[in-house]
Design goal:
Layout (H helix, E strand, L loop, with lengths): L7 E7 L3 H12 L6 E7 L6 H11 L5 E5 L5 H11 L5 E5 L4 E2 L3 H10 L7 E10 L5 E4 L9 H4 L11 E3 H16 L8 H11 L3 E13 L12 H13 L1 H15 L6 H13 L4 H11 L6 H13 L3
Parallel strand pairs: 1-2, 1-4, 2-3, 6-9
Antiparallel strand pairs: 4-8, 5-9, 6-7, 6-8
Length: about 325
């Protein structure tokens, strides 16, 4: 298959990322899809990260590398800021500061984008090699079995943000939804990748997950989110339900999606409203509402935690 050359803008949020940043930048330069540029939003780093980016920019004779100032309101808002600043590009690729991309990462994503209509929002994501700080392999990220869709996206994020590539229609959708959320004071989403998964599926777009790993996902104590496939990770997420953090994440996501409600398909708007209502009901109302809504997570254990959140009133 011949892929029509299109430029990709890599969007990378930066905050005190100097220890692993050069390896990530070098992996961009080693991509077999050469037609890319890079936009970096620095959220107030106190280390050498910005200088590393400037040196990398100076070495890129055929590619634009731009460093801008972030909003200094956390990683999710920094990524939303990058999306807003991405302009009218044909595709954008989300990047973390501490991973290492495999050489075919962009070309695999762009092959998927080329195979689908460009006027339908499309979110590409993929599996990853989970690795230690020194890049020693630990595991492959999970392979999800249940369908991707809005009923899943409302209560679970399965689109790994560091692998996401958006086509032009999905980028424009995210930019407009971001503007509306900001105007409504509702841009404080729980996570940028979760919001993108919700937004694209809610607007009738397509999510394509590549079962081939495309990058080395480095685990270290400074990870904002980290892996979600271990017993300790499961316990941490259960603790977030018990503490009310999960309920707060849902509140913030609902507010952002509601602000952009007319961008969603009618059935997604109805499901969003049903979810918002069931969260306010008593025990029996929450359980009945959750069953009727058909909201689901990808594994039995995760689904059990969702029902527990409903029982405890922390959904």
């Amino acid at each position: 298959m011949t892929i029509t050359a299109r430029r990709v803008t890599i969007l990378m949020a930066l905050y005190n990322g100097a220890p692993h940043l050069q390896a990530q930048l070098d992996s961009f330069a080693a991509q077999d899809w050469a037609d890319w540029d890079l936009l970096v939003s620095d959220d107030g780093s106190g280390d050498a990260g910005p200088e590393i980016v400037r040196a990398f920019a100076a070495a890129q004779l055929k590619r634009a590398v731009r460093l801008i100032s972030g909003p200094k309101q956390g990683f999710a808002r920094n990524f939303l800021h990058l999306i807003a600043e991405a302009g009218d590009g044909s595709a954008v690729a989300i990047a973390d500061q501490d991973d290492v991309w495999l050489p075919a990462k962009l070309s695999r994503a762009m092959a998927v984008l080329a195979d689908h209509a460009q006027d339908q929002p499309l979110l590409y994501c993929a599996r990853t090699h989970i690795v230690a700080p020194d890049l020693t392999p630990l595991a492959l990220s999970p392979r999800w079995r249940r369908p991707f869709g809005f009923a899943n996206a409302l209560v679970q994020n399965v689109a790994a943000g560091n692998t996401i590539v958006l086509n032009r229609a999905a980028l424009h959708l995210a930019q407009e939804a971001g503007r509306r959320a900001a105007a409504a004071g509702a841009a404080d989403v729980a996570a940028h990748d979760w919001w993108l998964y919700q937004l694209v599926t809610g607007a009738g777009g397509l999510v394509v997950r590549d079962d081939a790993p495309v990058l080395l996902y480095r685990q270290h104590p400074q990870n904002e989110m980290g892996r979600n496939d271990t017993l300790s990770a499961w316990r941490a997420r259960l603790a977030k339900v018990m503490s009310g953090t999960f309920a707060d994440w849902n509140r913030r996501n609902i507010a952002a999606l509601t602000a952009a409600g007319d961008l969603l398909m009618p059935e997604a708007r109805h499901l969003l409203a049903d979810f918002a209502r069931l969260r306010q009901r008593g025990l029996l109302g929450r359980l009945a509402g959750l069953r009727r809504a058909g909201l689901y997570r990808q594994t039995r254990g995760a689904q059990a935690v969702l029902w527990l959140a409903a029982v405890l009133g922390r959904i």
